[in-house]
């Protein structure tokens, strides 16, 4: 079926864009609806996403499915200790035949870059992604080049590996809008997984089709920016952020980049649910994936087996949720 024959979603409707992506990816994906939702939110807000989970839970497949459903150019980089920054960004190659240097672009020049097992790469190589993720440019031997638009990095990591891995530095973690943990499927989900692959042994990302156009994504991004955030909702975000900086188990709380991630994220979450305003429930739903990977705990907390998720849970339980009754999350009439 050609693109002109397909019934594409309304270009300015983030909810329809999301539903189209979700419906198409569910032809292969069993469970993990949260992953597709958060990937879509990140895509509509120019964010990046870190997926953590044990081997075999479809982390890379999830990213590949998003690329297929959106029609985005997709490149996967297998991160290893011997991979160099130039292997990701590119380099200048001397051509003897012409006597000139020629730019060889790396895999980062794609719409969707999957850094598989990112914590296996050295910190020097990990840092090659910092400029790309923040500025959406790459500098190669003094020449700054713009990356394609849309541009998104999805990184994966295995939490149980101890040998041959390098912990992501705080600056690297902070560049990811969300961190999601991909859990093992429950029995019902795994039963459905076995049934599908029994019927279609070759089932995979190639089995799905493009569900939205790039123009739809751009228009949906613009629609997301129009979502209203009432002052009490903004205050709730600021209270949560401030609580990370004052918590006794935290050495370094989150930066304003986390506050901005909240702002963009709650707007997109509201939009894909068909709302023109964000609520405190949107904030709550995004608190863990936005805050957990950004917290730096003190030594005493780590020795006491207190984890970032424990701290975030405590913060959510103790920070007062503002009363938005009467506002409905919408602007107050003049």
From TrEMBL:
- Coiled-coil stretches noted in the UniProt entry, renumbered to this chain: none
Pfam short name (any one) = AAA_lid_2
This entry's Gene Ontology molecular function terms read:
ATP binding; ATP hydrolysis activity
Q: Which residues form the signal peptide?
A: none
Full protein name: MoxR-like ATPase
Which InterPro entries does the entry link to?
AAA+_ATPase, ATPase_AAA-3, CbbQ/NirQ/NorQ/GpvN, ChlI/MoxR_AAA_lid, P-loop_NTPase
Query: Which residues are in the AAA+ ATPase domain?
Result: 45-186
- Which key words are in the record? ATP-binding, Nucleotide-binding
Q: What is the originating organism of this protein?
A: Natronococcus occultus SP4
């Amino acid at each position: 079926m050609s693109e002109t024959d397909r019934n594409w979603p309304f270009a300015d409707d983030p909810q329809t864009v999301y539903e189209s992506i979700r419906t198409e990816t569910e032809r292969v994906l069993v469970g993990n609806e949260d992953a597709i939702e958060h990937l879509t939110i990140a895509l509509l807000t120019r964010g990046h996403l870190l997926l953590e989970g044990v081997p075999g839970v479809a982390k890379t497949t999830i990213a590949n499915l998003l690329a297929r459903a959106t029609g985005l150019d997709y490149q996967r980089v297998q991160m290893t200790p011997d991979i160099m920054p130039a292997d990701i960004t590119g380099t200048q190659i001397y051509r003897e035949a012409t006597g000139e240097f020629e730019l060889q672009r790396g895999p980062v020049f794609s719409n969707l870059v999957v850094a598989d097992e990112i914590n296996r790469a050295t910190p020097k190589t990990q840092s090659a992604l910092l400029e790309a993720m923040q500025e959406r440019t790459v500098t190669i031997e003094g020449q700054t080049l713009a990356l394609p638009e849309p541009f998104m990095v999805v990184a994966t990591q295995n939490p149980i590996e101890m040998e041959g891995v390098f912990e992501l530095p705080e600056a690297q973690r902070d560049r990811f809008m969300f961190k999601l943990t991909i859990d093992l499927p429950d029995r019902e989900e795994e039963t459905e997984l076995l049934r599908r692959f029994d019927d279609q042994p070759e089932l995979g990302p190639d089995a799905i089709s493009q569900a939205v156009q790039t123009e739809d994504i751009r228009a949906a991004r613009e629609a997301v920016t129009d979502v209203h955030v009432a002052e009490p909702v903004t205050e709730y975000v600021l209270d949560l952020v401030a609580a990370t900086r004052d918590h006794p188990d935290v050495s370094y709380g989150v930066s304003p980049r986390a506050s901005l991630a909240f702002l963009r994220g709650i707007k997109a979450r509201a939009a894909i649910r068909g709302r023109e305003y964000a609520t405190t429930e949107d904030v709550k739903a995004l608190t863990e994936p936005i805050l957990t990977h950004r917290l730096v705990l003190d030594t005493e907390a780590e020795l006491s087996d207190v984890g970032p998720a424990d701290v975030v849970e405590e913060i959510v339980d103790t920070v007062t949720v503002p009363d938005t009754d009467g506002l409905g999350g919408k602007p107050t009439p003049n």
